Amino acid sequence: MSAFARHRRALLTASVLLTALGTTTVLPAATASAAPTVAAAKATPKPNPAGRYAGKAVAVGKDMVAVLRNDPKAGGPEAWIRAVPKNWRSGDPYMGRTLAKLDRGHVTAAQRGLSLRLVDPKGSKPALRVTGAKGGPRTYALPKVGTPDARGCTIITEHFIGAGTVAVLSNGLSGPSAFFKDAGDGTRFAGVVNRAHPSLPESAGFLAQIVDPNGAAPKLRTNMEGGGHPASTTPFPAPGCVK
Q1: For a surface tag, which of 27, 134, 152, 187 has the fewest beta carbons within 10 Å of its beta carbon?
Q2: Which tens digit of pLDDT belongs to each residue from 7-62?
Q3: Distance between CA atoms of 84 and 62, rounded to whole angstroms?
Q4: 221 and 211 in contact (C-beta within 8 Å)?
């Protein structure tokens, strides 16, 4: 184990007691007595309801993000304005408190001193216009119809995995992915695991690997405590949409 990992453990000796807070129990897909028709239904991937509120998240200032969507089946261009922590960065979870929603029926909003407008909501290039920030007005193009972001495919969650570490898990059409950050200040470290690289190298100082990265129910297996301690397993969220 690296000196960096040993230092994190020394500072957070009680973290092993908290590991369970970031671990989700994996329930069996079906009991032995379940009817065959039920088991067959569970084998077919279904869209995650959370996908209805997911999309392309961009920071707009004042500890807010705009979650941009453009799915004709869901009403067309949308911008969900959500509150996020001060240290939020691209790739972090963004399903915080909803502050406002802009769509074809409501094209303007004002939040925390910023003015927001959905421009060209019925045209071919809808965008979100934000004014009032120190850097001047900014325009964010909405995702193109038919792209994963437009449908809100990628779902992101985060889980405490011990030793002061949070795993940020995402899953979408490109498969499961996870990175790691300090639970206190949000500093990222140790790299990323995904389908191409399902395990962290030994130099990371802790175990992190994706179990069944190409399957329908991938899981993240982690062990922050070194040898002699059981590993934790956390399921990845289901994608918001499927092909």
Answers
A1: 134
A2: 454 444 333 333 333 333 332 333 334 444 444 445 555 667 888 899 999 999 99
A3: 9
A4: yes
Kindly report the three-state secondary structure assignment for every residue of the chain: CCHHHHHHHHHCCCHHHHHHHHCCCCCCCCCCCCCHHHHHHHCCCCCCHHHHHCCEEEECCCCEEEEEEEEHHHCEEEEEEEECCCCCCCCCCCCCCEEEEEECCECEEEECCEEEEEECCCCCCCEEEEECCCCCCEEEECCCCCCHHHHCCCEEEEEEEECCEEEEEEEECCEEEEEEEECCCCCEEEEEEECCCCECCHHHCCEEEEECCCCCCCEEEEECCCCCCCCEEEECCCCCCCC
pTM, two decimal places: 0.76
